[in-house]
Amino acid sequence: MPLSSIGDTQIDVDAALRRLGDRVHHTPLLHSRLLDREVGARLWLKAENFQRAGSFKARGAFNAALVGVEAGDPRGLLAISSGNHGQAVALAAAELGLPAVVVMSEGSSPVKIAAIRGYRAEVVTQGVTMSNREQIATELAAARGLRVVHPHDDPHVISGQATVGCELAAQLGSLGIEAPLVLVPLGGGGLLSGTVIALKRLLPRARVVGVEPAASNDGALSLASGSRVTLSEAPRTVADGAATMRLGAICWEIIKAEVEEIVTVSDRQIGAASWWLWTRCKLVVEPTGALGVAAALAAVGSLASLRDSDPSTYPSEIVCVVSGGNCLPSQISDLVGSSLEEPEEV
Amino acid sequence: MPLSSIGDTQIDVDAALRRLGDRVHHTPLLHSRLLDREVGARLWLKAENFQRAGSFKARGAFNAALVGVEAGDPRGLLAISSGNHGQAVALAAAELGLPAVVVMSEGSSPVKIAAIRGYRAEVVTQGVTMSNREQIATELAAARGLRVVHPHDDPHVISGQATVGCELAAQLGSLGIEAPLVLVPLGGGGLLSGTVIALKRLLPRARVVGVEPAASNDGALSLASGSRVTLSEAPRTVADGAATMRLGAICWEIIKAEVEEIVTVSDRQIGAASWWLWTRCKLVVEPTGALGVAAALAAVGSLASLRDSDPSTYPSEIVCVVSGGNCLPSQISDLVGSSLEEPEEV
Fold first, then answer.
1. pLDDT tier for residue A341 given thresholds of 50, 70 and 90
2. Domain B3-55+155-336 is of which CATH architecture?
3. Nearest residue of chain B to residue A32 (CA atoms)
4. CA contacts within 13 A on the Cβ side of A179
5. Candidate from B118, B284, B330 with C-beta closest to A283
6. Interchain proximity A340–B329, CB inside 8 Å
7. Residue of A88, A168, B101, B148 with fewest CB within 10 Å of its CB?
8. Among all residues of chain B, which has the CA nearest to that of A332?
9. What is the pLDDT at residue B172?
10. Who among B325, B326, B329 is closest to A333 (CB)?
């Protein structure tokens, strides 16, 4: 598949790599012997919780922002986001000397608003709801001459997220790992579609699987039915970064063509994975970032059937993309509980 | 100073390095640009929170345990500890096939007891208090034929902890850093005395400073007075791993000879450091592990006078030994609060 022919869009990963340079961190690939033993394979964590602004979103936001700067576009940036994308766009704008506006629903967490204002962006919440926020954002962008940066359905954003896959391919290559199973959190689809594009080209024997919260299984339903499914109501899950009602249109075209499997995990399984990441790996990971580890620990989907039917085909190397770490201690405390003993759910 | 002549003890760092091999992790030296900006120097974190059993204590425990095994000593191990040393001894014993008993005060946190039992050690608490626990442990060791592994005042334990300094010297050397300021948490003195022995030999221009909680300032008082000070009552501080009443005798001899400065930080400063480590670095660090970062952020002791009197002499490279990460989310939640905005205390 020529990467330049997805719909009418241009996914240019090489340009994104060059453009991003050292503006984003090359995040480490971490390893835990304890998790290995628990999962029955070597488990690697691609630690995007260490990324700038706390999640992989910095990659796409910087790439999209820099494309505008390179083209001489003087406009400020507007993001619709209640979370990591807003922080990432605010950081990119601040660093590039552009104004930024983030449109968030009324009643958004004061903590998240404070985090975005910490990057000096203007936050607009008045009268904004989940259902009217796209319209309000479009009107505001037109009225104030701002450029909208979509959280996932934008080829420059997807190209930026694809650099996770490029780094991963190089890191795995240096370890001699050629055929890993790669578990990627799935919300709107920017991270999954970018990662699969990069890995299919650079590490063609990698198997890339998306992981969704069970309550937000639009991706799994879409892949099963062959057409993009929209959930009837907003999902409720601890993995707030993946609580989407449907995949982005461009993301879906890539995922449909390139991703073989999407699995789901329960909120309890996400809690068990968070427990492991906290108590054993000493990593601050937000619930959405724990989706891959939850799938590995619970051996969901084809992992379970592989293990049960023919252990010899069980993957020996599993990579979990740990997508972000923006959460409060109290959130993790609620999720993990107050025990250092293993949770029953694992 | 010949390392073999401290009192009648033998501190043999090279033997410890060889003995430990890959039994303990070579922990990474992490770096955060945000912390750099806050501190006004390049700040490095020696991440012993990623160490086996969650703290540097695994180094000393494994070294002491292996010395016994090499000498053909078949005895099981006994540790007095309410925390990390107990877990470390339990892990080392389990891995080497030795029984282990950990003596803890009645009323010790069930969470800590569970963690130690998780390594299959026997926990003894009945009738044990802070004041009688050494005596009970000695009697129990005699009655059951167990070998006592002291948490810090044992040359084999100090030699094990010294391997932190060896790794650090190699890591700093590869970065071209020759004269760092190294901030080391100080409780009983095992980590500080081991680290300073290794660094004075391997990186002689390094300046090693101990960091204590203000409520547990026996080390600072001792260095100021020139003789080992015992506090009149048990200190109360969030940094429970450093809540000691006096330094170990062997540790004190080394610290007196080799360490130029010991500084203290308040519990509020420890909370501010925990906030940075959590929200910005995404690291799970227990309060005691945050002591060095607290000192760097607060610019305590000679750091403050250097900065104020002659900024040109302010150190350009600061290393904080992050000693451990064994804590519950709820503890960090209580300490850090529920804000992603910068705490006022920084």
1. low
2. 3-Layer(aba) Sandwich (3.40)
3. B50
4. 5
5. B284
6. no
7. B148
8. B329
9. 98
10. B329
CATH of domain B76-144: 3.40.50.1100
Average pLDDT across chain A, whole number: 91
Q: Where does B276-328 have alpha helices with state H?
A: 291-298, 302-309
* A309 pLDDT higher than 70: no
User: How, if at all, do strands B100-103 and B317-322 pair?
Assistant: unpaired
In this complex, the residue of B111, B115, B340 whose CB is nearest that of residue A338 is B111
Q: Closest-CA residue in chain B for A119?
A: B341
Helices (H), B203-276: 218-225, 249-258, 267-275
* More confident of the two residues A110 and B158: B158
Beta strand spans in chain B (E): 29-31, 42-47, 76-80, 100-103, 122-124, 146-148, 181-185, 207-213, 261-265, 317-322
- The fraction of chain B above a pLDDT of 90, given in percent, is 74
| A278 reaches B (C-beta below 8 A) | yes
Query: Does pTM surpass 0.95?
Result: no
CA distance B185 to A237: 40
A289 at the B interface (CB within 8 A)? no
Q: Are B13 and B288 in contact (CB under 8 A)?
A: no
Contact B284 A282 (CB under 8 A): yes
pLDDT band (50, 70, 90) for residue B4 = very low
Name the packing angle between helices B249-258 and B190-202 (round to 10°): 40
Show Cβ contacts of residue B172 under 8 Å, excluding neighbours closer than 6 positions.
B29, B44, B178, B180, B203, B206, B317, B319
Are residues B33 and A50 in contact, defined by beta-carbon separation less than 8 angstroms?
no
B218/B115 Cα distance (integer angstroms):
29
Q: Which of A111, A282, A332 sits opposite B49 (nearest CB)?
A: A282
Tell me, what's the ipTM?
0.89
Candidates A24, A120, A282, A334: best to mutate against B (most CBs of B within 10 A) is A282
Is the Cβ of B336 closer than 8 Å to some Cβ of chain A?
Answer: yes
Interface A-B, measured as beta-carbon pairs within 8 A, has a size of 79
pLDDT 10s digits, A252-287: 999 999 999 999 999 999 999 998 999 889 999 999
**Res A344: pLDDT:** 53
Considering only CB atoms, B282 lies closest to which of A50, A335, A341, namely: A50
pLDDT of residue A1: 38
Q: Which two tokens stand for residue A260?
A: 């073989």
The ranges assigned to domains in chain A are: 3-55+155-336, 76-144
Same-fold call for A3-55+155-336 versus A76-144:
yes
Q: What is the pLDDT of residue A106?
A: 86
Q: At A238, which helix (H) or strand (E)?
A: none
Digit-coded pLDDT (tens) for A206-225: 999 999 999 999 999 999 99
Strands (E), chain A: 29-31, 42-47, 76-80, 100-103, 122-124, 146-148, 181-185, 207-213, 261-265, 317-322
pLDDT bucket at A34, cuts 50 / 70 / 90 = confident
Return the number of other C-beta atoms located less than 10 Å from residue A344's C-beta: 8
Q: Is some CB atom of chain B closer than 8 A to the CB atom of A210?
A: no
Q: Where are the beta strands (DSSP E) in B33-86?
A: 42-47, 76-80
Per-residue burial over B292-316, b = 16 or more CB atoms within 10 Å of its CB, e = otherwise? bbbbbbbbbbbbeebeeeeeeebbe
pLDDT band at A7 (very low <50, low <70, confident <90, very high): very low
